[in-house]
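[job 4471] stage=fold_predict status=RUNNING
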Amino acid sequence: MRSLVLVGMIVGTVASAASAFAQSAPTPSPAAATEDPDRVVCHMSPAPTGSRLGSSRECHTQKQWDQMRLQQQQNVNGMQMQGLNSQPGGK
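[job 4471] inference complete, writing structure tokens
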């Protein structure tokens, strides 16, 4: 039972982190991605909850943004698969 609760918490945390990333870094349109992968793109990260101050700007090439997005998707998929493969009951 504890394992199921723990897996649920992990999956929920991963899902909320993935949705937060999706909100802060919109996916590029297919036309923009094929134009120039070395083009520098800047994204504003939101301020911490409860504050109007503290937002920051992060700049990378389009290719780097795509690689970071792919890596995060692979991390989420790996954690979800790990949760599916764990045995119930902590055994």
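[job 4471] summary: The chain has a mean pLDDT of 77.
[job 4471] exit 0
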